[in-house]
Amino acid sequence: MYNLLITLGQGILPIAALFSPKLKRFVTGRKEVFKTLSLELNPTKKTIWMHAASLGEYEQGVPVLEEIRHYYPEHQIVLSFFSPSGFEVKKNTPLADIVVYLPVDSLRNAMRFVTVLKPSLAIFVKYEVWPNYMTALQQAEIPSILIAAIFRPNHIYFKWYGQLMRKSLHKFYHIFVQDSSSQALVKDSGYAHVSVAGDTRFDRVYRLSKHVESLPKEIQEILTAFSSKKPLFVGGSVWPEDMNILGVALEKYSHNIKFFLAPHKVDKASVETLLHGLPIQLQKQSVWLSKTNPQEASKASVIIIDRIGILNQVYPLAQMAYVGGGFKTGLHNTLEAAVYGIPLAIGPNFNKFKEAKDLVALGGIQVINTTENANQFLELAVEKSYIEQIKGIQTSYISEQLGATFKIMSKIAKYF
Question: Are residues 181 and 225 in the same domain?
Fold first, then answer.
């Protein structure tokens, strides 16, 4: 049944791609995979293969990739993505020698891909469990591991109808999970080779905070002019639903706080939707990052980011932040902001995110449900005692969670 659905999907996708630019990239990108591998793979080198679904999973894999790059430079690294949003942004990452899309999980594709790669080790990140790829790796006797995994009882692996996915999960040589509850679930499903390593994102954001990349000069000049005299609020990966709650509060405090807003998507339509969702007065005081200059920015109250890839470099400049998604599809990465020890707020849908749940329980993140909550947060966020309290909570929590990468590398060294 699974293989039948995969086959049907492969037939339908090219038709659907005619009506969706994202699906078009999904389909056309996969046509070049084996050509790319034949041209770029070095048959004289050993290969390490890492697969990530998209950009978020890639970020979790980065600390492990960095360690492999450092300690095993003689190996070539192949990085695969399922989603165009991951591939398009990271197709030129220096952490991999070759970056490709993962071919659709048919048995034929999986066997061919594994045969061509012949990896010494296959590393999958978080949720990426593909039955035919796991079968191909098992038959080729290639060790495979799953890192930064986190499981809940409602996942298909633990349901009576999830036998195929459960068997696929059990084909890993080792599974590294984020917490003890995930470990218990996997062990109860009949699999013993599972250990708690933690979440590699903590290592990732900590390293980034110590080596912040410089913003392009023109953007740095704009931001300096924009926020030189007032505290800076950064809204990261915000959706219109977030702004429905935040908008009125931002207008109320625009006389003493500057606002730097990054929509979840940075295409023209998404930026315009975000802009038009602001109160009228704030709309008049807003500029687009790509269309402004230092003189104009200094007079604005809001800058909207309309380019991808700079949010990590903006958080260090912020005195407070809000991470979006908590009113929509799911919370975005709070650790990217929390690592800087600043007052931080999120929307109410955060229960699937362990780090957010932990920090909310500790008092290190404030949950916003209403405009009144937003007003309270912005009022607190400029108080010195509150800032110091939050910094202590966030710094302590993140420090306690470091070390997942070391635990993983210590156990997988035998495969190199």
Answer: no
What are the tens digits of pLDDT across the range 233-284?
Answer: 999 999 999 999 999 999 999 999 999 999 988 888 888 998 888 999 999 9
The CATH number of residue 90's host domain is 3.40.50.11720
Q: What is the pLDDT of residue 191?
A: 96
Residues 237 and 187 placed together within one structural domain of the fold: no
| 150, 274: one domain | no
Residues 75 and 168 in one domain: yes
Cα separation, 166 vs 156, in Å, equals 8
27 and 91 fall within a common domain: yes
Q: What is the pLDDT of residues 324-337, one digit of tens each?
A: 999 987 899 999 99
Residue numbers of the domain that contains 236: 214-401
Q: For residues 14 and 97, give the distance between their C-alpha atoms in angstroms, rounded to a whole number.
A: 29
pTM exceeds 0.85, yes or no? yes
Burial of 132 (0-12, 13-18, 19+ CB in 10 A): buried
Same domain membership, residue 176 and residue 230: no
Q: What is the pLDDT of residues 331-364, one digit of tens each?
A: 999 999 999 999 999 999 999 899 999 999 999 9
Q: Which residues of 163-186 are buried (b: 16+ CB within 10 A; e: fewer)?
A: eebbebbbbbbbbbbbbeebbebb
| 259 beta partners | 233, 302
The pLDDT value given to residue 301: 94
Check whether residue 201 and residue 188 sit in a common domain: yes
168 and 268 fall within a common domain? no
Total domains present in the chain: 2
